[in-house]
Amino acid sequence: MGLVNIGLSGVLANRVALNTTAQNTANVNTPGYSRQIVNFDATSSGNFVNGMNLGAGVEVNGILRIAEQSTTNRLREATESSQYTQTYYSGLSSLENLLGADGLSLTQGLNQFFAAIDEASVAPESLAFRQQVLTNADALTQQFNSIYSQLNQQEAAQSERYSAVIMDVNSQLESIAKLNQKLQEDALLGKNVAGLQDAMDKHLNELATSVDIQVIYMESGGVEVSTPNGQPLVIGGFSGSLARDLSNGDPYSTDLTLSFQSMTSSVDASLGGELGAMERLKQLQFEPIKATLNDLALGFAGGVNSVLNAGFDLNGSVGRDLFTYTGGSEAASLAIDSTLSAQHLAFSSDPSVAGNGDTLKSLSQLSQTTLSNGSVVGQTPYSAYSGLLGQIGIFTRQAESEASAAQISLEDAQVVRDSLSAVNSDEEAANMMLYLNAYEANMKVISTANQMFQTLLQAF
User: Fold this and answer.
1) pTM for the complete prediction?
2) Which of 393, 356, 351, 387 lies closest to 371, judged by CA?
Protein backbone atom coordinates (compact mmCIF):
# COMPACT_ATOMS: atom_id res chain seq x y z
CA MET A 1 0.00 0.00 0.00
CA GLY A 2 3.08 2.31 0.07
CA LEU A 3 2.59 3.30 -3.55
CA VAL A 4 -1.04 4.23 -2.87
CA ASN A 5 -0.12 6.31 0.18
CA ILE A 6 2.64 8.10 -1.69
CA GLY A 7 0.27 8.90 -4.55
CA LEU A 8 -2.44 9.97 -2.13
CA SER A 9 -0.04 12.34 -0.34
CA GLY A 10 0.77 13.91 -3.69
CA VAL A 11 -2.92 14.27 -4.56
CA LEU A 12 -3.72 15.94 -1.23
CA ALA A 13 -0.71 18.23 -1.29
CA ASN A 14 -1.32 19.41 -4.84
CA ARG A 15 -5.01 19.87 -4.13
CA VAL A 16 -4.00 22.34 -1.38
CA ALA A 17 -1.70 24.04 -3.88
CA LEU A 18 -4.52 24.24 -6.43
CA ASN A 19 -6.84 25.77 -3.84
CA THR A 20 -4.18 28.28 -2.86
CA THR A 21 -3.61 29.23 -6.50
CA ALA A 22 -7.36 29.58 -6.97
CA GLN A 23 -7.50 31.86 -3.92
CA ASN A 24 -4.71 34.02 -5.37
CA THR A 25 -6.41 34.20 -8.76
CA ALA A 26 -9.75 35.12 -7.20
CA ASN A 27 -8.10 38.03 -5.38
CA VAL A 28 -6.07 39.37 -8.28
CA ASN A 29 -7.95 42.68 -8.05
CA THR A 30 -8.35 42.80 -4.26
CA PRO A 31 -6.50 45.84 -2.83
CA GLY A 32 -3.99 44.90 -0.16
CA TYR A 33 -4.18 41.15 -0.81
CA SER A 34 -0.85 39.33 -0.41
CA ARG A 35 -0.38 36.27 -2.57
CA GLN A 36 0.23 32.94 -0.88
CA ILE A 37 2.37 29.97 -1.82
CA VAL A 38 2.39 26.39 -0.57
CA ASN A 39 5.54 25.09 1.10
CA PHE A 40 6.08 21.38 0.28
CA ASP A 41 8.24 18.99 2.29
CA ALA A 42 9.20 15.47 1.31
CA THR A 43 8.16 12.83 3.86
CA SER A 44 11.35 10.83 4.20
CA SER A 45 10.26 7.95 6.42
CA GLY A 46 7.50 5.42 6.73
CA ASN A 47 7.79 3.23 3.58
CA PHE A 48 10.39 0.46 3.74
CA VAL A 49 10.95 -2.07 0.96
CA ASN A 50 13.58 -4.75 1.39
CA GLY A 51 15.01 -2.73 4.25
CA MET A 52 15.32 0.42 2.19
CA ASN A 53 13.49 3.66 3.11
CA LEU A 54 11.72 4.82 -0.03
CA GLY A 55 9.97 7.73 1.67
CA ALA A 56 6.26 8.29 2.20
CA GLY A 57 5.49 11.01 -0.33
CA VAL A 58 4.94 14.71 0.29
CA GLU A 59 3.22 16.92 2.81
CA VAL A 60 2.26 20.59 3.02
CA ASN A 61 4.50 22.21 5.60
CA GLY A 62 2.61 25.49 5.51
CA ILE A 63 1.06 28.20 3.41
CA LEU A 64 3.31 31.24 3.20
CA ARG A 65 2.09 34.83 2.82
CA ILE A 66 4.44 36.69 0.51
CA ALA A 67 5.08 40.01 2.22
CA GLU A 68 8.13 41.96 3.29
CA GLN A 69 7.99 44.17 6.35
CA SER A 70 10.14 46.92 4.87
CA THR A 71 7.86 47.39 1.85
CA THR A 72 4.77 47.29 4.07
CA ASN A 73 6.23 49.94 6.37
CA ARG A 74 7.30 52.09 3.44
CA LEU A 75 3.79 52.00 1.96
CA ARG A 76 2.21 52.92 5.29
CA GLU A 77 4.62 55.82 5.83
CA ALA A 78 4.05 57.05 2.27
CA THR A 79 0.30 56.84 2.84
CA GLU A 80 0.55 59.01 5.94
CA SER A 81 2.77 61.58 4.21
CA SER A 82 0.51 61.78 1.15
CA GLN A 83 -2.63 62.32 3.22
CA TYR A 84 -0.90 64.92 5.38
CA THR A 85 0.42 66.97 2.46
CA GLN A 86 -2.77 66.67 0.41
CA THR A 87 -4.96 67.79 3.32
CA TYR A 88 -2.69 70.75 4.03
CA TYR A 89 -2.58 71.78 0.37
CA SER A 90 -6.36 71.51 0.04
CA GLY A 91 -6.85 73.69 3.12
CA LEU A 92 -4.43 76.33 1.85
CA SER A 93 -6.11 76.38 -1.56
CA SER A 94 -9.46 77.07 0.07
CA LEU A 95 -7.97 79.92 2.10
CA GLU A 96 -6.28 81.41 -0.96
CA ASN A 97 -9.54 81.30 -2.90
CA LEU A 98 -11.42 82.89 -0.02
CA LEU A 99 -9.04 85.81 0.51
CA GLY A 100 -8.84 86.56 -3.21
CA ALA A 101 -12.53 86.09 -4.03
CA ASP A 102 -14.35 88.80 -5.95
CA GLY A 103 -16.43 90.94 -3.62
CA LEU A 104 -14.38 89.96 -0.58
CA SER A 105 -11.01 91.47 -1.49
CA LEU A 106 -10.10 94.19 0.98
CA THR A 107 -7.93 95.81 -1.68
CA GLN A 108 -11.05 96.60 -3.68
CA GLY A 109 -12.84 97.90 -0.58
CA LEU A 110 -9.92 100.13 0.39
CA ASN A 111 -9.73 101.48 -3.15
CA GLN A 112 -13.38 102.47 -3.09
CA PHE A 113 -13.13 104.05 0.36
CA PHE A 114 -10.09 106.20 -0.46
CA ALA A 115 -11.58 107.09 -3.87
CA ALA A 116 -14.65 108.45 -2.05
CA ILE A 117 -12.34 110.44 0.26
CA ASP A 118 -10.54 111.97 -2.74
CA GLU A 119 -13.82 112.81 -4.46
CA ALA A 120 -15.15 114.47 -1.30
CA SER A 121 -12.11 116.76 -1.23
CA VAL A 122 -13.48 118.52 -4.32
CA ALA A 123 -16.51 119.75 -2.35
CA PRO A 124 -16.12 118.86 1.35
CA GLU A 125 -19.43 120.48 2.24
CA SER A 126 -21.38 118.31 -0.26
CA LEU A 127 -23.77 115.94 1.50
CA ALA A 128 -23.76 113.67 -1.57
CA PHE A 129 -19.98 113.21 -1.46
CA ARG A 130 -20.14 112.75 2.31
CA GLN A 131 -22.81 110.07 1.95
CA GLN A 132 -20.63 108.29 -0.59
CA VAL A 133 -17.84 108.14 2.02
CA LEU A 134 -20.29 106.61 4.52
CA THR A 135 -21.56 104.12 1.94
CA ASN A 136 -18.09 102.95 0.94
CA ALA A 137 -16.94 102.84 4.57
CA ASP A 138 -19.92 100.62 5.36
CA ALA A 139 -19.12 98.38 2.38
CA LEU A 140 -15.53 98.04 3.59
CA THR A 141 -16.66 97.01 7.07
CA GLN A 142 -18.93 94.38 5.55
CA GLN A 143 -16.00 92.99 3.59
CA PHE A 144 -14.02 92.67 6.80
CA ASN A 145 -17.03 91.01 8.44
CA SER A 146 -17.62 88.63 5.51
CA ILE A 147 -14.01 87.51 5.24
CA TYR A 148 -13.82 86.85 8.96
CA SER A 149 -17.20 85.08 8.92
CA GLN A 150 -16.21 82.82 6.05
CA LEU A 151 -12.89 82.08 7.71
CA ASN A 152 -14.88 80.97 10.76
CA GLN A 153 -17.13 78.86 8.54
CA GLN A 154 -14.14 77.13 6.97
CA GLU A 155 -12.60 76.55 10.39
CA ALA A 156 -15.93 75.23 11.71
CA ALA A 157 -16.20 72.80 8.80
CA GLN A 158 -12.62 71.69 9.41
CA SER A 159 -13.42 71.27 13.10
CA GLU A 160 -16.34 68.99 12.25
CA ARG A 161 -14.07 66.96 9.99
CA TYR A 162 -11.49 66.82 12.78
CA SER A 163 -14.06 65.26 15.11
CA ALA A 164 -15.13 62.76 12.43
CA VAL A 165 -11.52 61.69 11.84
CA ILE A 166 -11.01 61.19 15.58
CA MET A 167 -14.04 58.87 15.65
CA ASP A 168 -12.60 56.94 12.71
CA VAL A 169 -9.20 56.67 14.43
CA ASN A 170 -10.83 55.24 17.56
CA SER A 171 -12.78 52.74 15.45
CA GLN A 172 -9.58 51.63 13.69
CA LEU A 173 -7.79 51.22 17.00
CA GLU A 174 -10.59 48.98 18.28
CA SER A 175 -10.46 46.89 15.10
CA ILE A 176 -6.69 46.47 15.37
CA ALA A 177 -7.00 45.36 19.00
CA LYS A 178 -9.64 42.77 18.03
CA LEU A 179 -7.43 41.54 15.19
CA ASN A 180 -4.57 41.15 17.67
CA GLN A 181 -6.72 38.80 19.73
CA LYS A 182 -7.92 36.83 16.70
CA LEU A 183 -4.39 36.49 15.33
CA GLN A 184 -3.13 35.16 18.64
CA GLU A 185 -5.97 32.66 18.91
CA ASP A 186 -5.64 31.36 15.35
CA ALA A 187 -1.85 31.19 15.53
CA LEU A 188 -2.09 29.00 18.64
CA LEU A 189 -4.52 26.71 16.81
CA GLY A 190 -2.19 26.44 13.81
CA LYS A 191 -4.64 28.11 11.43
CA ASN A 192 -3.61 30.04 8.32
CA VAL A 193 -3.54 33.71 9.42
CA ALA A 194 -2.57 35.24 6.07
CA GLY A 195 -6.00 36.80 5.60
CA LEU A 196 -5.92 38.29 9.09
CA GLN A 197 -2.45 39.71 8.44
CA ASP A 198 -3.70 41.35 5.25
CA ALA A 199 -6.60 42.80 7.21
CA MET A 200 -4.16 44.11 9.81
CA ASP A 201 -2.05 45.87 7.17
CA LYS A 202 -5.20 47.35 5.67
CA HIS A 203 -6.34 48.76 9.03
CA LEU A 204 -2.87 50.14 9.74
CA ASN A 205 -2.77 51.87 6.36
CA GLU A 206 -6.21 53.36 6.92
CA LEU A 207 -5.13 54.52 10.37
CA ALA A 208 -2.01 56.08 8.84
CA THR A 209 -4.16 58.32 6.64
CA SER A 210 -5.41 59.97 9.83
CA VAL A 211 -2.38 59.95 12.11
CA ASP A 212 1.31 59.11 12.11
CA ILE A 213 1.95 55.86 14.02
CA GLN A 214 4.79 53.69 15.20
CA VAL A 215 4.22 49.95 14.74
CA ILE A 216 5.98 47.01 16.38
CA TYR A 217 5.14 43.56 14.95
CA MET A 218 4.79 40.61 17.28
CA GLU A 219 5.58 36.95 16.53
CA SER A 220 1.88 36.11 16.41
CA GLY A 221 1.38 38.62 13.59
CA GLY A 222 -0.24 41.10 15.96
CA VAL A 223 1.04 44.61 16.51
CA GLU A 224 1.68 47.25 19.13
CA VAL A 225 0.79 50.75 17.97
CA SER A 226 1.88 54.06 19.48
CA THR A 227 2.10 57.75 18.66
CA PRO A 228 5.41 59.09 17.29
CA ASN A 229 6.56 59.95 20.83
CA GLY A 230 5.63 56.54 22.24
CA GLN A 231 2.18 57.07 23.78
CA PRO A 232 0.37 53.70 23.50
CA LEU A 233 -2.58 53.35 21.13
CA VAL A 234 -2.89 49.54 20.92
CA ILE A 235 -1.28 46.86 23.06
CA GLY A 236 -2.56 43.33 22.62
CA GLY A 237 -6.33 43.35 22.86
CA PHE A 238 -6.46 46.80 24.45
CA SER A 239 -6.95 50.02 22.48
CA GLY A 240 -6.73 53.68 23.40
CA SER A 241 -9.23 56.40 22.64
CA LEU A 242 -8.63 59.96 21.43
CA ALA A 243 -10.88 62.84 22.49
CA ARG A 244 -10.90 66.57 21.86
CA ASP A 245 -9.87 68.85 24.73
CA LEU A 246 -11.92 72.06 24.53
CA SER A 247 -11.01 73.27 28.01
CA ASN A 248 -9.18 76.30 26.60
CA GLY A 249 -12.52 77.76 25.49
CA ASP A 250 -11.78 77.52 21.77
CA PRO A 251 -14.63 75.58 20.09
CA TYR A 252 -12.28 74.73 17.22
CA SER A 253 -9.37 73.60 19.41
CA THR A 254 -7.21 70.79 18.03
CA ASP A 255 -5.90 69.80 21.48
CA LEU A 256 -6.34 66.08 22.17
CA THR A 257 -6.30 63.70 25.11
CA LEU A 258 -5.52 59.99 24.94
CA SER A 259 -7.20 57.53 27.27
CA PHE A 260 -5.58 54.10 27.60
CA GLN A 261 -6.81 51.70 30.22
CA SER A 262 -7.38 53.93 33.26
CA MET A 263 -4.87 56.61 32.27
CA THR A 264 -5.69 59.86 30.43
CA SER A 265 -3.00 62.21 29.17
CA SER A 266 -2.56 65.04 26.71
CA VAL A 267 -1.34 64.15 23.25
CA ASP A 268 1.85 66.14 22.89
CA ALA A 269 3.19 64.72 19.64
CA SER A 270 2.96 66.05 16.11
CA LEU A 271 0.21 63.79 14.86
CA GLY A 272 0.86 63.68 11.13
CA GLY A 273 -1.74 62.37 8.70
CA GLU A 274 -5.03 64.21 8.23
CA LEU A 275 -5.27 65.18 11.91
CA GLY A 276 -1.79 66.66 11.86
CA ALA A 277 -2.47 68.65 8.70
CA MET A 278 -5.66 70.12 10.15
CA GLU A 279 -3.83 71.02 13.35
CA ARG A 280 -1.12 72.73 11.29
CA LEU A 281 -3.71 74.63 9.26
CA LYS A 282 -5.27 75.97 12.43
CA GLN A 283 -2.02 76.91 14.14
CA LEU A 284 -0.09 78.27 11.15
CA GLN A 285 -2.87 79.61 8.95
CA PHE A 286 -6.33 80.18 10.44
CA GLU A 287 -5.18 81.74 13.69
CA PRO A 288 -2.46 84.00 12.18
CA ILE A 289 -4.75 85.12 9.34
CA LYS A 290 -7.54 86.02 11.77
CA ALA A 291 -5.04 87.86 13.96
CA THR A 292 -3.75 89.81 10.95
CA LEU A 293 -7.27 90.77 9.89
CA ASN A 294 -8.04 91.95 13.42
CA ASP A 295 -4.83 93.97 13.55
CA LEU A 296 -5.52 95.45 10.12
CA ALA A 297 -9.09 96.39 11.06
CA LEU A 298 -7.91 97.91 14.34
CA GLY A 299 -5.06 99.85 12.78
CA PHE A 300 -7.11 101.16 9.85
CA ALA A 301 -10.24 102.04 11.86
CA GLY A 302 -8.17 103.56 14.65
CA GLY A 303 -6.26 105.70 12.17
CA VAL A 304 -9.44 107.00 10.50
CA ASN A 305 -11.11 107.69 13.85
CA SER A 306 -8.04 109.50 15.14
CA VAL A 307 -7.96 111.85 12.13
CA LEU A 308 -11.70 112.56 12.36
CA ASN A 309 -11.48 113.21 16.10
CA ALA A 310 -9.08 116.06 15.36
CA GLY A 311 -11.51 117.73 12.92
CA PHE A 312 -14.93 119.38 12.95
CA ASP A 313 -18.20 118.51 11.24
CA LEU A 314 -20.57 120.72 9.25
CA ASN A 315 -22.10 121.97 12.50
CA GLY A 316 -18.73 123.02 13.85
CA SER A 317 -18.79 120.24 16.43
CA VAL A 318 -15.75 118.14 17.38
CA GLY A 319 -15.40 115.07 15.16
CA ARG A 320 -16.71 111.67 16.16
CA ASP A 321 -15.53 108.10 15.43
CA LEU A 322 -16.60 106.75 12.05
CA PHE A 323 -15.86 103.12 12.93
CA THR A 324 -16.86 101.02 15.93
CA TYR A 325 -15.56 97.60 16.89
CA THR A 326 -15.21 95.18 19.75
CA GLY A 327 -11.72 94.62 21.12
CA GLY A 328 -10.33 91.18 20.32
CA SER A 329 -12.68 90.64 17.35
CA GLU A 330 -12.17 93.83 15.39
CA ALA A 331 -12.57 92.34 11.88
CA ALA A 332 -15.73 90.48 12.81
CA SER A 333 -17.36 93.40 14.62
CA LEU A 334 -16.14 96.35 12.55
CA ALA A 335 -19.02 98.68 11.62
CA ILE A 336 -19.76 102.35 11.04
CA ASP A 337 -21.46 104.26 13.85
CA SER A 338 -25.16 103.91 13.04
CA THR A 339 -25.92 107.25 14.71
CA LEU A 340 -23.49 109.06 12.42
CA SER A 341 -24.94 111.00 9.47
CA ALA A 342 -23.18 112.63 6.53
CA GLN A 343 -23.08 116.04 8.20
CA HIS A 344 -21.29 114.57 11.24
CA LEU A 345 -18.18 113.66 9.25
CA ALA A 346 -15.41 115.93 10.53
CA PHE A 347 -13.72 116.92 7.27
CA SER A 348 -12.72 120.44 8.39
CA SER A 349 -9.76 121.49 10.53
CA ASP A 350 -11.50 124.78 11.35
CA PRO A 351 -14.83 124.80 13.20
CA SER A 352 -15.81 128.04 11.54
CA VAL A 353 -14.98 126.93 7.97
CA ALA A 354 -16.91 123.75 7.28
CA GLY A 355 -15.72 123.31 3.76
CA ASN A 356 -11.96 123.69 4.01
CA GLY A 357 -11.46 119.91 3.80
CA ASP A 358 -8.04 119.83 5.45
CA THR A 359 -8.92 116.64 7.34
CA LEU A 360 -9.64 114.86 4.05
CA LYS A 361 -6.00 115.26 3.07
CA SER A 362 -4.95 113.47 6.27
CA LEU A 363 -7.53 110.75 5.64
CA SER A 364 -6.27 110.23 2.09
CA GLN A 365 -2.69 109.96 3.36
CA LEU A 366 -3.72 106.98 5.54
CA SER A 367 -3.58 104.80 2.43
CA GLN A 368 0.20 105.16 2.49
CA THR A 369 0.71 105.54 6.23
CA THR A 370 2.29 102.58 8.02
CA LEU A 371 0.35 100.94 10.80
CA SER A 372 1.82 100.55 14.27
CA ASN A 373 0.00 97.63 15.87
CA GLY A 374 0.42 93.89 16.16
CA SER A 375 1.27 91.78 13.13
CA VAL A 376 0.81 94.67 10.67
CA VAL A 377 3.30 97.06 12.25
CA GLY A 378 5.34 98.91 9.62
CA GLN A 379 2.89 98.10 6.83
CA THR A 380 0.29 100.19 5.07
CA PRO A 381 -3.31 98.90 4.90
CA TYR A 382 -2.66 97.87 1.31
CA SER A 383 0.67 96.17 1.87
CA ALA A 384 -0.65 94.37 4.94
CA TYR A 385 -3.43 92.73 2.96
CA SER A 386 -1.42 92.14 -0.23
CA GLY A 387 1.34 90.67 1.92
CA LEU A 388 -1.17 88.30 3.48
CA LEU A 389 -2.35 87.21 0.02
CA GLY A 390 1.20 86.84 -1.23
CA GLN A 391 2.21 84.75 1.75
CA ILE A 392 -0.78 82.46 1.33
CA GLY A 393 0.09 82.09 -2.35
CA ILE A 394 3.67 81.12 -1.56
CA PHE A 395 2.56 78.62 1.08
CA THR A 396 0.00 77.13 -1.31
CA ARG A 397 2.49 76.63 -4.14
CA GLN A 398 4.96 75.04 -1.74
CA ALA A 399 2.24 72.77 -0.32
CA GLU A 400 1.20 71.80 -3.85
CA SER A 401 4.76 70.78 -4.66
CA GLU A 402 5.03 68.75 -1.45
CA ALA A 403 1.70 67.05 -2.10
CA SER A 404 2.77 66.10 -5.64
CA ALA A 405 6.08 64.70 -4.40
CA ALA A 406 4.34 62.73 -1.64
CA GLN A 407 1.87 61.30 -4.16
CA ILE A 408 4.73 60.13 -6.38
CA SER A 409 6.40 58.50 -3.36
CA LEU A 410 3.12 56.78 -2.50
CA GLU A 411 2.74 55.43 -6.03
CA ASP A 412 6.34 54.20 -6.00
CA ALA A 413 5.82 52.50 -2.62
CA GLN A 414 2.68 50.82 -3.94
CA VAL A 415 4.55 49.53 -7.01
CA VAL A 416 7.35 48.12 -4.84
CA ARG A 417 4.86 46.42 -2.54
CA ASP A 418 2.81 45.02 -5.41
CA SER A 419 5.86 43.77 -7.30
CA LEU A 420 6.53 41.48 -4.36
CA SER A 421 3.15 40.72 -2.84
CA ALA A 422 0.45 41.30 -5.45
CA VAL A 423 -0.97 38.50 -7.59
CA ASN A 424 0.40 37.99 -11.09
CA SER A 425 -2.26 36.37 -13.29
CA ASP A 426 0.26 34.82 -15.68
CA GLU A 427 2.25 33.32 -12.83
CA GLU A 428 -0.85 31.88 -11.21
CA ALA A 429 -2.01 30.42 -14.55
CA ALA A 430 1.36 28.67 -14.90
CA ASN A 431 1.13 27.41 -11.30
CA MET A 432 -2.37 26.13 -11.95
CA MET A 433 -1.12 24.01 -14.85
CA LEU A 434 1.88 22.83 -12.83
CA TYR A 435 -0.19 21.71 -9.83
CA LEU A 436 -2.94 20.24 -12.02
CA ASN A 437 -0.41 18.11 -13.91
CA ALA A 438 1.11 17.00 -10.60
CA TYR A 439 -2.37 16.21 -9.25
CA GLU A 440 -3.21 14.11 -12.32
CA ALA A 441 0.17 12.36 -12.21
CA ASN A 442 -0.38 11.38 -8.60
CA MET A 443 -3.85 10.11 -9.45
CA LYS A 444 -2.12 8.00 -12.10
CA VAL A 445 0.21 6.65 -9.42
CA ILE A 446 -2.80 5.59 -7.35
CA SER A 447 -4.39 4.04 -10.43
CA THR A 448 -1.17 2.15 -11.21
CA ALA A 449 -0.92 0.92 -7.64
CA ASN A 450 -4.49 -0.36 -7.91
CA GLN A 451 -3.69 -2.21 -11.15
CA MET A 452 -0.65 -3.80 -9.54
CA PHE A 453 -2.77 -4.89 -6.60
CA GLN A 454 -5.42 -6.37 -8.90
CA THR A 455 -2.73 -8.24 -10.89
CA LEU A 456 -1.37 -9.63 -7.66
CA LEU A 457 -4.80 -10.84 -6.59
CA GLN A 458 -5.35 -12.57 -9.93
CA ALA A 459 -2.16 -14.55 -9.41
CA PHE A 460 -3.82 -16.57 -6.62
Assistant:
1) 0.88
2) 387
